[in-house]
Design a protein that fits this description.
It is built from 23 helices and 23 strands. It is an alpha/beta fold. The chain is extended. This is RNA helicase. It holds the Pfam family KH_1. InterPro entries: DEAD/DEAH_box_helicase_dom, Helicase_ATP-bd, Helicase_C-like, KH_dom, KH_dom_type_1, KH_dom_type_1_sf, P-loop_NTPase, RNA-helicase_DEAD-box_CS. It catalyses: ATP + H2O = ADP + phosphate + H(+).
């Protein structure tokens, strides 16, 4: 029937034309009607897959009854993954035709299937017998089809479908692929990145040009300010806590920096409604940072304000923001989103800023504070109805922007308040995502208590030739209106607890205290002890509900309680004017947090006192603490100097010991050859 037919071909896989399960006399399961295919009963105990079976070898070395097939485990171990042997011609029949296929070898596994299940399925569906032989040249393998014309055609079609139209039916095998090394690679297209980026910038500019032009300049210098000589300006800045003003990234085209405004009237003489709001608030004169920041911001410049906490930074950027909103073209109702965005690191600081905004009523300007833990549904409702100022924490802000509830493309004035704290908390990705979505011609304000590299990098990325105003020094320093007291105590909880209890029981009626702890559990423990001793207090930390945290702030602010026990969540941005004392029950892990804790008292020109419980466990902070105390001209206990000296000597000793470790045996006695095991 077939010219190249071999009477005893080597068969890798074969199967019956009509497979059925039957039992033979030995109670074996038999596959097929004619030429038997014998499997042991162990197949029934391994039902994980149709081909997951073990064959009982024919011990006489034959091929099984009727020229059947058996699975040769020995050949599998020798290297063939599945090697099927068929009988010498059992069941081929006299009227069958044969047709040969050259199938790419990589598709043979698809045709056979797991344990031969696929080839059996092909035979059932087509009615033809299929044999996958060992005849292969590496690239292709010979597959033989037996049966009638219709069955063979059907089998060819099924195999063709399996191999995704790659199989060449009949004839010569497909040509071998040429060696890749001899193929000529198509020349790679060279990307002109300069042109590509220029197109992107042009497309972005065209998109932003669709929005109304931003108005930034609202400042008209008062004649009295203009008349100030350079010597007078320098003298004023030096007397007001050494105000230093400069361009952070100065260029040849940088504008001159405006003179400071010694009085409110000089800054807002064009805006009597603003002056009236300031009069209602009871302020007498601008704080140092306000006197220099207001003329800069009203002139439309970007500003970096660096000053200690409690120096009026919030009002420094808030009043120009109100004027900026009212000065933009078009009706506020038609803008489609807020004009001012203020980002803050914590919920408490965001709520504090919102409280300040609501103090100053100016031409119906509205605001909302959005933060995690607040009612999201209510926040979305207010935002979608329209608002002029959004004060937000980065997480919830990104949430509402991504959900499409808040459109920041209308924002023209951005404030990053306590930028150093936001970076410390890991908010830089969220900040960058938001800033990218706001038009690049915006006016940007950044406030910070310190000037670390991360804040400088952020300013360089998103600010245009900013004016940097810093009050005091760029070095870390505590406010000079606070008396700092260091108490050296034993490192025992009962000792510190007793000292705190004595202090709390001797508070006068007009005193208020914030007690800072290192852990949330510690804050709860202290609160319980105070309450058990008849002393009312409140706690504030991250495990408390937002409503409880807000109530704690209200209670300490209105005098319901005199003591607030808090973690560092309260160390930044909280503005409670009449806090008289700060107690560091647990000394902070870094000196920056110490500075911010101290800044919770002595605010708005008032004086306060900071008391820190310092133990041997805190001696690693002694050296930096001494620098802070000396800068503020505070008393430094002799024990603190001793701790700093001993800690430095201990570090040197450990460094030397560390150098001797790893020298192996003989380095210096001992079981392990010198140095401690750890």
């Amino acid at each position: 029937m077939c010219d190249n037919w071999d009477d005893s071909p080597v068969v890798v896989a074969s199967g019956p034309s009509t497979p059925n399960w039957v039992k033979n006399s030995q109670n074996d399961e038999v596959w097929g009607d004619g030429p038997s295919e014998t499997f042991t009963n162990s197949f029934r105990s391994n039902r994980g897959g149709r081909g997951s079976f073990q064959n009982r070898d024919n011990r006489d070395g034959g091929y099984g009854r009727g020229g059947g097939r058996r699975f040769d485990r020995a050949s599998e171990r020798a290297g063939d993954s599945q090697n099927w042997r068929g009988g010498g011609g059992g069941g081929s029949g006299g009227g069958e035709k044969c047709e040969v296929l050259n199938v790419p070898s990589r598709y043979v596994g698809r045709i056979i299937g797991r344990g031969g299940c696929k080839i059996s399925e092909l035979q059932t569906d087509s009615g033809a017998r299929i044999q996958v032989t060992r005849e292969s040249d590496g690239d292709t393998t010979v597959v033989k089809l037996f049966g009638g014309d219709e069955a063979i055609a059907k089998a060819k079609q099924l195999i063709d479908d399996i191999t995704a139209d790659v199989v060449k039916i009949g004839g010569d095998p497909p040509p071998k692929l040429e060696d890749r090394s001899q193929q000529q690679e198509a020349p790679k297209e060279i990307v002109d990145w300069q042109t590509f980026l220029k197109k992107c910038e042009d497309a972005e500019k065209a998109e932003w040009d669709k929005y109304p032009q931003i108005m930034k300049e609202f400042y008209e210098e008062h004649p009295a300010v203009t008349a100030m000589t350079a010597e007078e300006v320098e003298e004023f800045r030096e007397k007001n806590n050494n105000i230093v003003v400069d361009r952070t990234f100065k260029t040849e085209n940088s504008k001159p920096i405006p003179n400071p405004c010694p009085e409110f009237f000089y800054a807002f003489h064009q805006y009597p409604e603003i002056l009236e709001e300031i009069r209602k608030a009871g302020f007498e004169k601008p704080s140092p940072i306000q006197s220099q920041a207001w003329p800069v911001l009203l002139s439309g410049e970007d500003l970096i304000g660096i000053a200690q906490t409690g120096t009026g930074k919030t009002l420094a950027f808030l009043l120009p923001a109100l004027i900026h909103i009212d000065g933009q073209p078009g009706r506020r109702e038609d803008r489609g989103g807020p004009a001012v965005l203020i980002m803050a690191p914590t919920r408490e600081l965001a709520l504090q800023i919102d409280k300040e905004v609501k103090k100053y009523q100016y031409r119906g300007i509205t605001s909302i504070c959005i933060y995690g833990g607040g009612n999201r549904k209510d926040q979305v409702k207010v935002v979608t109805q329209g608002v002029d100022i959004v004060i937000a924490t980065p997480g919830r802000l990104n949430d509402l922007v991504a959900a499409g509830h808040l459109d920041v493309r209308t924002v023209t004035y951005v404030v990053l308040d306590e930028a150093d704290r936001m970076l410390d908390m890991g908010f830089e990705p969220q900040i960058r995502k938001i800033m990218y979505a706001i038009r690049p011609t915006r006016q940007t304000v950044m406030t910070s208590a310190t000037w670390p590299p991360g804040v400088r990098r952020l300013a360089q990325s998103y600010m245009c030739d900013p004016v940097q105003v810093y009050v005091g020094t760029l070095d870390l320093a505590a406010t000079h209106t606070v008396t700092q007291v260091i108490q050296i105590l034993e490192d025992k909880d009962e000792v510190k607890m007793q000292v705190l209890m004595d202090f709390a029981q001797n508070l006068s009626a007009d005193q208020k205290v914030i007690v800072f702890c290192g852990r949330k559990s510690r804050a709860d423990e202290l609160a319980s002890e105070l309450v058990l001793n008849g002393i009312s207090c409140q706690t504030m930390h991250g495990d408390r509900d937002q409503s409880d945290r807000e109530q704690a702030l209200l209670d300490i602010a209105d005098g319901t309680v005199q003591i607030l026990i808090a973690t560092d969540v309260a160390s930044r941005g909280l503005d409670i004017d009449d806090i008289t004392h700060v107690v560091n029950y647990d000394f902070p892990r870094n000196i920056e947090e110490y500075v911010h804790r101290v800044g919770r008292t002595g605010r708005a020109g008032k004086y306060g006192e900071s008391i820190s419980y310092f133990t041997r466990a805190d001696w690693g902070q002694a050296k930096e603490l001494i620098s802070i105390l000396e800068e503020a001209e505070q008393y430094v206990p002799e024990e603190l100097h001793d701790m700093a000296d001993r800690f430095e000597k201990m570090k040197e000793r450990r460094e030397k010991e560390g150098g001797s470790r790893g020298r192996g045996r003989g380095g210096g006695g001992g079981r392990f050859g010198g140095g401690r095991r750890w």
